[in-house]
């Protein structure tokens, strides 16, 4: 496994991180024993960052991760997030007040069976709570020893700057893939200039770039969030766009094979070629999936490779940088 500097934290992070969104059940059913075996495999191959969140099944993801990590907790960089899914109304609600933060981190620490996190993130911006209030609350957690570093996820550039005015943002987390490059123009540049560690989720376009989907693929309505077609305002799986995107994937498979790679390796190598990115978070339900992804950082893409990739997207008219925000 290759390692990279994690912003200005002084930590080195594996280029591939273990994303635990799937463990919460939002991607359909999982087999807990398989997932725990995948966590063990990730530890064996040198993956040292594991990312989860309170909202991933409200304790389910964190608890399964704790079982998988066992005595290896102190060998890894442990990340969790808070701030969304409250209220019991069936509609996602955001709360990043210090009061909510205090409740959430205690619940998270208990679920993860640890006395501290390495990184604690605000999952989505709560615009009803002043950012300086949230950042002061996070600094209090650092001073209490409950987390080493703090950061934000899915904040706009101006919002990150507002947070920085109150307390340094150590880590940022954002969606990024060949199909979704909306963050390159603003947030990525800002984080690079301020040496904010960048974690990216969805580097395989939420499964699209695994190359396993076909025209007959159906997502379990009610158990798999992709069934609604929209991926953070990117309509990847809609009835209109899904066939076109599958055609793009088929051509990328050929392009990857010509370069001695699987499509998912090509996709991850492309994401990791951005110098701002510290770690690409990839979910895995089985040891095989962990093994498959771990070699992606060994591949490098030439300018000609990247131009060939761009030609595929242009041919099919895919806009990877639409003027829409993930919120």
- Unreliable segments of 5+ consecutive residues: none
Structural class: alpha/beta
Rounded mean pLDDT score: 93
Strand order of the largest sheet: 3-4-5-6-7-8-9-10
Number of helices: 10
Biggest sheet layout: 8 strands, parallel, barrel
Please specify the SSE layout and strand pairing:
Blueprint lengths: L2 E3 L6 E3 L1 E4 L12 H14 L3 E3 L8 H10 L7 E6 L15 H15 L4 E6 L8 H13 L3 E7 L3 H10 L4 E5 L8 H10 L3 E5 L40 H17 L4 H10 L6 E5 L3 H7 L9 H13 L12
Parallel strand pairs: 3-4, 3-10, 4-5, 5-6, 6-7, 7-8, 8-9, 9-10
Antiparallel strand pairs: 1-2
Helix pairs in contact: 1-2, 1-9, 4-5, 7-10
Describe the 3D structure.
- The chain is of the alpha/beta class.
- The chain is 36% helix and 14% strand.
- Strands 3-4-5-6-7-8-9-10 form an eight-stranded parallel barrel, surrounded by five helices. The protein has a two-stranded antiparallel sheet with strand order 1-2.
- Strand 4 (49-51), helix 2 and strand 5 (77-82) form a beta-alpha-beta unit.
- Helix 1 packs parallel to helix 9, helix 4 (131-143) packs across helix 5 and helix 7 (242-258) packs antiparallel against helix 10.
- It is globular.
- The model has no long low-confidence stretch (mean pLDDT 93).
What attributes characterize this protein structure?
327 residues; two-stranded antiparallel sheet
Concise overview:
The protein is an alpha/beta fold and 327 residues long. It is built from ten helices and ten strands.
């Amino acid at each position: 496994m290759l390692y990279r500097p994690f912003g200005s934290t002084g930590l080195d992070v594996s280029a591939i991180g273990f994303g635990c969104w799937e463990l919460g059940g939002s991607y359909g059913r999982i087999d807990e024993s398989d997932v725990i075996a995948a966590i063990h495999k990730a530890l064996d191959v040198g993956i040292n960052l594991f990312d989860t969140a309170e909202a991933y099944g409200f304790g389910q993801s964190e608890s399964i991760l704790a079982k998988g990590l066992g005595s290896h907790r102190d060998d890894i960089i442990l990340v969790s997030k808070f701030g969304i899914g409250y209220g019991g109304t069936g509609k996602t609600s955001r709360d990043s007040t210090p009061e909510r933060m205090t409740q959430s981190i205690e619940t998270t620490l208990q679920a993860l069976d640890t006395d501290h996190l390495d990184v604690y993130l605000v999952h989505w911006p709560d615009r009803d709570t002043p950012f300086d209030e949230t950042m002061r609350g996070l600094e209090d957690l650092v001073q209490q020893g409950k987390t080493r570093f703090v950061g934000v996820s899915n904040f706009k550039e101006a919002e990150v700057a507002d947070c920085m005015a109150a307390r340094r943002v150590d880590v940022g987390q954002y969606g990024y893939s060949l199909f979704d490059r909306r963050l390159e123009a603003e947030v990525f540049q800002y984080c690079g200039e301020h040496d904010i560690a960048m974690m990216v989720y969805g580097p395989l376009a939420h499964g699209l770039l695994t190359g396993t989907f076909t025209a007959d693929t159906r997502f379990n309505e009610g158990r798999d969030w992709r069934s609604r077609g929209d991926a953070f305002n990117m309509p990847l799986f809609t009835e209109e766009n899904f066939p076109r995107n599958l055609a793009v994937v088929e051509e990328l498979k050929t392009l990857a094979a010509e370069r001695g790679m699987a499509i998912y390796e090509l996709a991850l190598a492309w994401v990791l070629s951005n110098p701002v990115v510290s770690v690409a978070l990839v979910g895995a339900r089985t040891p095989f999936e962990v093994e498959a992804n771990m070699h992606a950082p060994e591949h490098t893409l030439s300018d000609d490779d990247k131009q060939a990739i761009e030609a595929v997207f242009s041919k099919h008219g895919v806009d990877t940088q639409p003027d829409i925000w993930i919120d």
